[in-house]
Amino acid sequence: MPDTAAIPVLTIDGPSGSGKGTISRAVAGRLGWHYLDSGALYRAIGVAAGWADLDLADPAALVRCAFDTEIGFREADGEPRVIVNGVDATDELRTETAGAAASAIAAIPEVRFALKERQRAFRRAPGLVADGRDMGTVIFPDAGRKVFLTASAEERAERRYKQLKDKGVSVTLDGLLREILARDARDASRAVAPLRPADDAVRIDTTGLGIETVVDRVLALMEP
Ligand SMILES: Nc1ncnc2c1ncn2[C@@H]1O[C@H](COP(=O)(O)OP(=O)(O)O)[C@@H](O)[C@H]1O
Ligand SMILES: Nc1ccn([C@H]2C[C@H](O)[C@@H](COP(=O)(O)OP(=O)(O)O)O2)c(=O)n1
């Protein structure tokens, strides 16, 4: 295992729709750093488990699935794509069904353990921006900068509503708000690596803030 401790890491954690993916990608682009979308790993395991018809109540099968599933990230026409066992699963991964399955399997401690080293392997020079729920608390506790993004549940549901509508997915605002609240509750109440800010994280409430403002605030934290 190469010693990667000297490679800088910025962690960006927070609940669904707080803007982690958008802000992390933009900041990684501006810094020229690598990017880890840890949620995509949990979503990919959930989707692969569905393809294999695994029982979401069978932890042993899900852990095998977490170790065996091949997950690759690539860009096509400037858009990030996620390849699961050789199949481009990007669109399926972004559905709320995949998000709920990811949140359910993410509560299994052995599944989290199975993904630990895979996530740490993303720490490569010149640096890494890591987005998720436990990047600052569990996966990269030694990160030099940690951010915890929040926004009101209503605003997060509205952002998701717009995002899915733009993709032509039929959803209701009420339904999304319910799903977001249910996922927040499950992610924050699980016994292992619950959603919570690291003690040394800077919290940014993005309610009412535009994307560029949040990107600038995070970049300002990176100044020496
Ligand atoms: N500060 C912000 N203001 C308004 N919209 C935002 C903001 N941050 C993100 N968004 C939009 O909200 C949606 C969800 O953001 P996303 O990055 O997918 O959140 P997360 O990864 O936390 O679930 C996207 O369509 C994104 O463009
Ligand atoms: N580091 C992580 C990332 C995601 N998860 C789980 C919990 C989340 O509800 C699901 C999906 O995460 P993802 O970040 O893709 O979801 P959102 O974009 O925030 O809606 O995976 C986790 O437990 N730990």
Uncertain parts:
none
First and last CA, distance: 29 Å
Mean pLDDT: 95
Name the CATH homologous superfamily.
Answer: P-loop containing nucleotide triphosphate hydrolases
Q: What spatial order of strands do you see in the largest sheet?
A: 2-6-1-7-8
Considering DSSP H and I runs of 4 or more, what fraction of the residues is helical? Answer: 40-55%
CATH architecture: 3-Layer(aba) Sandwich
Major beta sheet summary: 5 strands, parallel
Structural class: alpha/beta
Strands, count: 8
Radius of gyration: 17 Å
Ligands:
adenosine-5'-diphosphate, deoxycytidine diphosphate
For the record, the CATH class is: Alpha Beta
CATH topology: Rossmann fold
Helix count, DSSP H or I runs of 4 or more residues: 10
SSE string = EHEHHEEEHHHEHEHHEH
Domain count: the total is 1
Q: Percent of residues in beta strands? A: 15-25%
What global shape is seen?
globular
Give a description of the structure.
This protein is an alpha/beta fold. It has one domain (9-215): Rossmann fold, CATH 3.40.50. The chain contains 10 helices and 8 strands. The protein has helices spanning 20-31, 38-51, 59-68, 90-93, 96-105, 109-120, 135-139, 153-166, 173-189, 211-221, and strands at 9-13, 34-37, 71-76, 79-84, 87-88, 128-132, 145-150, 202-205. The chain has a 5-stranded parallel beta sheet with strand order 2-6-1-7-8. Strands 3-4-5 form a 3-stranded antiparallel beta sheet. α2 packs across α5 and α5 packs parallel to α9 (173-189). The mean pLDDT is 95. The chain binds adenosine-5'-diphosphate and deoxycytidine diphosphate (YYY). Adenosine-5'-diphosphate binds at residues 14, 16-22, 159-160, 163, 206, 209-211, 214. It holds the Pfam family Cytidylate_kin. It is an enzyme of class 2 (transferase). GO terms for molecular function: kinase activity. Belongs to the cytidylate kinase family. Type 1 subfamily. InterPro entries: Cytidylate_kin, Cytidylate_kinase_dom, P-loop_NTPase.
